């Protein structure tokens, strides 16, 4: 068994990451760009993964590290460029309404059989062309980060949710309520004190220092922060319609409870989303499966500690499928 795993790892490392692009037109005629990558050797008994990003972001945040990392373990990865991202744009040319974003994701999932390549594409290993076997799962595991977590939760108001997805994972989910409790927790937290200390001691010199403090781990290089900030800015042409969001937060009475495996991941070093916010989201979905980690910042898929949360995702999948 160990020998087999070593061979798989060598073959994976010898194959460069290839990211493919699919175009999808929603029922509202919104063009969405989907990126995906295939593992060298498919783990047949697990579902494909579909990532959804948060506000002012794009699929690239998952492509940076997690596509290749998860491919090593046999997972097929998809990432949706949501309406308003730099790659997909926004046909409405206005603010982004939460219900439109949920409808877009619903359209993608309902037609995922058409999108999913069933892992039948060929991959090149050491100069040889090999064919992957088809996965026994077609329904994806949806992974939503930050504001994407609200979109994922809203999906659970759909009465057909059990027939749409195989699993769901929330990463540092944005608060799901208008409650001011989150604001008070932030204002009286050690995290705000950390920000103020950095300001008064002159450690924050420009916007990149602020970005590093708010969104990343302590070990990430400022060069990477600059690169990522520039990319995030390209994805920030359209803002979230906060009035629409305020009026359409997920409603507990509308959530359709089911046996879909769920996982909620937060970081103790995330300045923006605390344990209480993560646990409140889990409670809304009637789940207690919460994993808190140390190291990553809010953008936990980027930076030095990107593998920590990825490993939690891998454990979740291996334990449930």
Describe what this molecule looks like in 3D.
The protein is α/β, with parallel strands linked by helices and 321 residues long. It has one domain: Alpha/Beta hydrolase fold, catalytic domain (Rossmann fold, 3-Layer(aba) Sandwich), CATH 3.40.50. Helix content is 38%, strand content 16%. The protein has helices at 2-14, 60-63, 66-72, 98-110, 112-115, 147-155, 181-187, 190-200, 207-215, 222-234, 242-247, 275-284, 306-320; strands at 20-25, 31-37, 49-52, 77-81, 122-125, 128-131, 141-145, 167-171, 262-267, 290-293. The strands form two sheets. An eight-stranded mixed sheet has the order 1-2-4-3-7-8-9-10, with helices on both faces. α4 packs across α6 (147-155) and α9 packs across α10 (222-234). The longest helix is centred in the last third of the chain and has 15 residues, at 306-320. The chain is globular. The relative contact order is 0.15. The model is unreliable at 119-134 (pLDDT under 50).
* Beta strands, count: 10
Task: Give the assembly state of these chains.
Answer: single chain
Query: How much is the average pLDDT?
Result: 88
CATH first level = Alpha Beta
Q: What is the strand and helix layout of this fold?
A:
Elements (H helix, E strand, L loop, with lengths): L1 H13 L5 E6 L5 E7 L11 E4 L7 H4 L2 H7 L4 E5 L16 H13 L1 H4 L6 E4 L2 E4 L9 E5 L1 H9 L11 E5 L9 H7 L2 H11 L6 H9 L6 H13 L7 H6 L14 E6 L7 H10 L5 E4 L12 H15 L1
Helix pairs in contact: 4-6, 9-10
């Amino acid at each position: 068994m160990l020998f087999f795993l070593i061979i798989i790892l060598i073959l994976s490392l010898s194959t460069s990451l290839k990211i493919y692009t699919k175009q999808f037109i929603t029922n509202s005629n919104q063009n969405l760009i989907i990126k995906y990558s295939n593992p060298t050797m498919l783990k047949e008994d697990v579902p494909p993964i579909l990532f959804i990003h948060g506000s002012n972001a794009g699929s690239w945040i998952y492509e940076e590290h997690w596509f290749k990392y998860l491919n090593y373990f046999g997972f097929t990865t998809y990432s949706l460029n949501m309406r308003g991202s730099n790659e997909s744009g926004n046909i409405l040319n206005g603010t982004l309404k939460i219900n439109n974003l949920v409808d877009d994701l619903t359209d993608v999932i309902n037609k995922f059989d058409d999108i999913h390549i069933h892992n039948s594409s060929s991959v090149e290993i050491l100069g040889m062309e090999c064919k992957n076997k088809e996965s026994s799962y077609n329904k994806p595991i949806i992974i939503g980060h930050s504001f994407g977590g609200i979109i994922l939760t809203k999906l659970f108001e759909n009465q057909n949710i059990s027939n749409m997805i195989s699993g769901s994972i929330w990463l540092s989910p944005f608060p799901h309520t208008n409650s001011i409790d989150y604001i008070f927790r932030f204002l009286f937290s050690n995290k705000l004190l950390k920000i103020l200390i950095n300001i008064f001691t002159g450690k924050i010199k420009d916007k990149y220092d602020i970005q590093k403090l708010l969104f990343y781990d302590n070990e990430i290089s400022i060069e990477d922060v600059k690169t990522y900030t520039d990319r995030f800015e390209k994805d920030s042409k359209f803002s979230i319609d906060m009035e629409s969001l305020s009026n359409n937060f997920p409603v507990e009475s509308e959530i359709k409870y089911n046996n879909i495996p769920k996982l909620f991941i937060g970081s103790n070093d995330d300045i923006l989303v605390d344990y209480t916010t993560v646990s409140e989201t889990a409670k809304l979905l009637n789940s207690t499966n919460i994993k808190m980690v140390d190291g990553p910042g809010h953008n936990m898929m980027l930076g030095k500690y990107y593998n920590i949360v990825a490993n939690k995702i891998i454990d979740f999948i291996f334990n449930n499928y």
